[in-house]
Specification:
Elements: H1 2-6, H2 10-24, H3 28-34
Helix pairs in contact: 2-3
Length: 43
């Protein structure tokens, strides 16, 4: 799934990150599954 993100434009990535952050409220494992770095997540 990481390869798919490389084909997205910066605008699409921003939207995807927003969706993932919204999903993380009810599905915390979704962010880890996608393995997408989040600025608001602690190191």
């Amino acid at each position: 799934m990481a390869k798919r993100f490389q084909r997205l434009t910066s605008s699409e990535v921003t939207v995807v990150i927003g969706v993932i952050r919204d999903m993380s409220t009810t599905m915390p494992h979704s962010t880890e599954a996608v393995n997408t770095p989040d600025k608001h997540r602690p190191p």
